[in-house]
UniProtKB/TrEMBL annotation:
PANTHER family: CITRATE SYNTHASE (PTHR42871:SF1). GO terms for molecular function: citrate synthase activity. It is an enzyme of class 2 (transferase). Keywords: Transferase, Tricarboxylic acid cycle. SUPFAM superfamilies: Citrate synthase. This is citrate synthase (unknown stereospecificity). The lineage of its organism: unclassified sequences, metagenomes, ecological metagenomes. Belongs to the citrate synthase family. Pathway: Carbohydrate metabolism; tricarboxylic acid cycle; isocitrate from oxaloacetate: step 1/2. Its EC number is 2.3.3.16. One of its GO terms (cellular component) is cytoplasm. GO terms for biological process: tricarboxylic acid cycle. It comes from freshwater metagenome.
Amino acid sequence: MPETITITDDRTGKQITVPITDGVFPASAVRELDPSLYIYDPAYMQTAACKSSITYLDGDNGVLRYRGYPIEQLAAKSTYLEVAYLLLNGELPDAAQLATWTYEVTNHTYIHENMRKRFVDGFHYDAHPMGMFVSSLAALGTFYNDAKDIDDKASRDKQILRLIAKTPTLASMAYRFSAGLPFVYPDNDLSFPGNFLNMMWKVGEYNIDPRLERAMDVLFILHADHEQNCGTTAMRIVGSSHADPYTSAAAAASALYGPLHGGANEAVVRMLTDIGHIDNVPAFIEEVKGGKGSRLMGFGHRVYKNYDPRATIIKKTAYDVFEVTGKNPLLDIALKLEETALSDPYFVDRKLYPNVDFYSGLIYQAMGFPVSMFTVLFAIPRTVGWLAHWQELLGDKDQKISRPRQWYTGVEARDYTPMAGR
Ligand code: CMC
């Protein structure tokens, strides 16, 4: 069978045959047929906007791999910092590389004092932590004028290091501000997740439970990248204009903020709280199916048409965390919802399964994080995914500034109507 596709323009009879490589054919074929002919593809459902060698996702079979390594193995055996190195560099670090990388990240965790005093302290008292996080990311870039030097690899590497190291600091600062607590400076003797937990919770003496530290690391690994999702696409689109990585990451974080994306973990806990009791689950499911209430948050995915492999790992991690914190009372409602939905033809026929957000919120809540911090917890590790894609984008000779075309459906040209004639 030839690995080609032939497109015929029936208006002109012109034909073009192009190769299909890995299931993809170039849209330039359409341009060759007729440069004024466009493909209508809202939400990029059928469009591969880039080549990427970072993350592999097979939604039908529930497969997720970073640089070829199955997510299950990375979650079981690796650490977030090791995974961050892998995503950025393509290979797992050896012992010396990991030591250097860990040292470098650990020594970039502090942020400029003016960032806290003048920016964070300037927010309204009840500002949402994710709103603070998004704006702080953009503001952070104003402290590093070398960030604009995106053609210089040394400068790019420096910004990547800064962003990965400083996002936990910004995140905890946003939380401490909203809770009215004094800011806790990074403790560079701690691990990456340990330092974050310490900055979040330390009031007087604080001893980190190693099981919670590990759970935090696993959650960071699971959220580190997910190929061309909405946030990463925002990073690539803004990055394609050669904006600095802080501004681009702020755009990516803004996309993540939405309830259909990273905001879903927050929406799940609010939904479970509203349901209130397992007896109310069947009625809630009927409401969802009837389109009266909200969607079943934490269910469904643009790409996964099977159980999200991250959800399986998170469900197990939830039990590890509950051993320390006690069971989250919302767990029973979540389990009942999952069981009910997975045996209901509405969800089965549409291939709607639990996604990464279905159980993560329960863990975060059990660990003491307020619901408003959930998306921030997603953004901390996703920063490395955004940066890995930004780096790949800048090195990709096929890429140019992103600029899709439109299907104009407005009125044709007409003359200005004077006020008296309207
Ligand atoms: N509850 C009820 N029905 C749903 C749901 C849901 N969660 N998700 C999809 N559907 C239905 C939808 O109504 C449609 O039905 P019909 O064909 O009768 O019109 C069908 O399933 C296909 O839905 P879609 O909206 O075309 O699917 P999509 O690929 O555009 O949407 C999604 C993907 C994730 C936005 C959607 O499944 C959703 O809104 N889920 C709830 C929010 C959520 O959990 N988001 C987190 C996603 S994973 C983490 C991340 O990416 O950040």
